[in-house]
């Protein structure tokens, strides 16, 4: 019987790294928590957003050639979709070009998407195209960032830019906007969940799971034990394994290949 393959697509927090790097992605270790009848094809790529992963001929286009009916596609994006502080990169480029500011147009990071528009449109593309190939798409809320405020992870660490975001208006680019915490308009995870409900796609909230792990450890220990030592986003081997373990637990809880998750999930 053919092994089922999980194709993981996403960003640097999930990606493969060579042995010379301290940084590790959690997609490298997911297979530790699954039995031998499930294979993980980790195709996450550093620096990817929903837009750039889709547009790159060596990424999503290549993954689609590897999918076999009955496979799974685990989809985790948002870290790099946030690069323009919630504004859509194409809208920024269009605006700066329209006012003749080619320097600013050229400096825009093309990865940026807006949660309520281009981000969800791109997620829908992955879901639709994976299903067309007979695969089962799963939307995974991205791992939280280790952005502590006292003992808790602050809003931006949960991929909600509502405390400070940029919008493009007909009259210019407006930075430093803010909406109340109850307003989810700039919350990438909230919008991913809406796509999951709309399209009846399994959803795994890795943002909340990692937030709980981080807050349980506290700021100092969280960075000591889980971080690669180069900031607040990326993982050491131990950190990546812990996040992969959380993903496996969520798989079991959400009945996603649950019978293939190891009964006793190892710490290492």
Fold and architecture overview:
The strands form 3 sheets. The protein has a 5-stranded parallel β-sheet. The chain has a two-stranded antiparallel ribbon with strand order 5-6. A two-stranded antiparallel ribbon has the order 7-8. The protein has a single domain (4-85, 113-162, 185-260), classed as 3-Layer(aba) Sandwich (Rossmann fold). The protein has 9 helices and 9 strands. A hairpin with a 2-residue loop joins strand 5 and strand 6 (152-153). The mean pLDDT is 96. 36% of the residues lie in helices and 15% in strands. Helix 7 crosses helix 8. With 268 residues, it is of the alpha/beta class.
Tell me the CATH superfamily. SGNH hydrolase
Shape: globular
| Beta-strand percentage range | 5-15%
What gap, in angstroms, lies between the N and C termini? 28 Å
What topology, given as strand order, has the largest sheet? 2-1-3-4-9
Compressed to H and E, one letter per element, the order equals EEHHEHHHEEEEEHEHHH
How confident overall, as mean pLDDT? 96
């Amino acid at each position: 019987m053919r092994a089922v393959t999980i194709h993981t697509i996403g960003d640097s927090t999930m990606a493969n790294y060579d042995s010379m790097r301290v940084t590790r992605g959690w997609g490298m270790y997911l297979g530790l928590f699954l039995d031998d009848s499930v294979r993980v094809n980790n195709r996450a790529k550093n620096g990817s957003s929903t837009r750039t992963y889709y547009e790159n001929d060596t990424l999503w286009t290549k993954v689609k050639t590897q999918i076999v009916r009955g496979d799974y596609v685990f989809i985790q994006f948002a870290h790099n979709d946030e690069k323009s502080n919630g504004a859509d990169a194409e809208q920024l480029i269009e605006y700066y070009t329209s006012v003749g500011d080619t320097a600013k147009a050229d400096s825009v990071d093309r990865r940026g998407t807006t949660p309520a528009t281009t981000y969800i449109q791109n997620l829908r593309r992955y879901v639709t195209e994976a299903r067309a190939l007979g695969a089962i798409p799963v939307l995974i809320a991205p791992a939280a960032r280790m952005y502590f405020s006292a003992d808790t992870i602050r809003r931006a660490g949960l991929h909600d830019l509502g405390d400070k975001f940029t919008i493009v208006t007909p009259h210019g680019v407006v930075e430093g906007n803010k909406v109340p915490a109850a307003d989810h308009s700039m919350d990438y995870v909230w919008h991913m969940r809406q796509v999951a409900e709309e399209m009846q796609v399994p959803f795994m909230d890795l943002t909340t799971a990692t937030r709980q792990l981080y807050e349980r450890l506290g700021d100092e220990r969280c960075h000591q034990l889980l971080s690669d030592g180069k900031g607040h986003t990326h993982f050491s081997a131990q950190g990546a394994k812990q996040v992969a373990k959380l993903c496996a637990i969520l798989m079991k809880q959400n009945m996603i290949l649950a019978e293939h998750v190891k009964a006793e999930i190892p710490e290492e």
